[in-house]
Design brief:
With about 290 residues, the chain is α+β, with helices and mostly antiparallel strands. It folds into three domains: about 100 residues, Ribosomal Protein S5, domain 2, CATH 3.30.230; about 35 residues, no CATH class; about 140 residues, Butyryl-CoA Dehydrogenase, subunit A, domain 3 (Up-down Bundle), CATH 1.20.140. The protein contains nine helices and six strands, in the order E-E-E-H-E-H-E-H-H-E-H-H-H-H-H. The strands form two sheets. Strands 1-2-4-3 form a four-stranded mixed beta sheet. Helix 5 runs antiparallel to helix 9. The longest helix is centred in the middle third of the chain and has 72 residues. The relative contact order is 0.14.
Length: about 290
């Protein structure tokens, strides 16, 4: 199974201690980047939470937000007020206010917003730890399921595009001998119209040179090989985004060579169609883990 890097999951849990809400957003990124938004009371759990997230996702930009609302009955036991800091802030406010008489007084809410005024008790972290990690793992599992569902849709899209590319390759294989035959007839007609004596050896040399110029057998074989490898990676699953991106770059390079060697409208059209299909897959592969 392959996984998309775009997903969203949300979970919440409530108890006598209060309410926790966890939201995780995932978008595509070259590597794994974790961004956590936590209340001050949960800051001590950040490193452990990062380790937990890494167990579930391997690539993408992950934004994890946890909101905590204590119950009214328990709120008084969750925090202590740094009275020394509050006193210092009030004294500083009085001194500053002397220079700005018209300025309104600072409210208690403004004081509470200052970092360090409310201090979380260490015991509260141990009380919440189990609930936080249970909620985090639950949300991560939902996120992975969402990434898996979208990854399954992308996988089917990739298989469809590979089938269409192989149809274009079949047109190339079928058309190439006809192109060589038509070119031979065209050369013969030119010699006949010019009333020039036809030298069989010269004609054979011209056809050998032409066949070498338009020979795309190697390109076609390599495209087939890349498609086979892409199918294998898709069936194998896991973190496949980077490998798929590399193979699609190679597919694009071979299709460019195929187009540059084309001297026939059918071959040229097949090369263009393949490039369009490859580009469609490349755009979506950027979103694969």
């Amino acid at each position: 199974m392959i996984y998309s890097m775009t997903a969203f999951a949300r979970s919440d849990v409530s108890g006598d201690w209060g309410n926790l809400v966890c939201e995780i957003r995932s978008i595509n990124h070259r590597y794994l980047e974790l961004v956590l938004y936590l209340p001050d009371v949960l800051r001590a759990l950040e490193m452990s939470m990062r380790d937990t997230i890494r167990k579930f996702v391997k690539r993408g930009k992950i934004e994890c937000s946890i909101r905590y609302q204590p119950n009214a009955n328990a709120a008084h036991s969750l925090f202590t007020v740094n009275e020394a800091l509050v006193q210092a802030l009030c004294q500083a406010n009085e001194k500053i206010s002397a220079y700005f008489p018209a300025t309104s007084l600072v409210s208690p809410t403004d004081i509470l917003r200052f970092p360090g005024v409310l201090e979380a008790k260490e015991a509260d972290i141990s009380t919440l730890r189990k609930q936080v990690f249970h909620l985090l793992e639950k949300t991560l599992k939902e996120l992975v399921l969402s990434r898996e569902r979208e990854g399954a849709e992308l996988k089917q899209l990739f298989f469809q595009r590979m089938d269409l590319i192989q149809l274009e390759l079949a047109k190339v294989r079928t058309r190439l001998p006809q192109v060589i035959q038509e070119q031979q007839e065209r050369l013969v007609k030119r010699f006949t119209d010019a009333k020039v004596e036809l030298d069989p050896n010269r004609l054979e040399q011209e056809m050998v040179v032409f066949a070498q110029k338009i020979d795309v057998a190697e390109e076609v074989d390599r495209i087939e090989t890349h498609i086979t490898e892409i199918r294998r990676i898709l069936n194998q699953g896991g973190a496949a985004g980077r490998r798929l991106d590399f193979l699609l770059q190679e597919l694009n390079r071979e299709s460019n060579t195929l187009g540059s060697k084309s001297v026939d409208n059918v071959l040229m059209h097949a090369a263009v169609e393949m490039k369009v299909l490859i580009e469609q897959v490349r755009e979506q592969v950027q979103n694969v883990e």
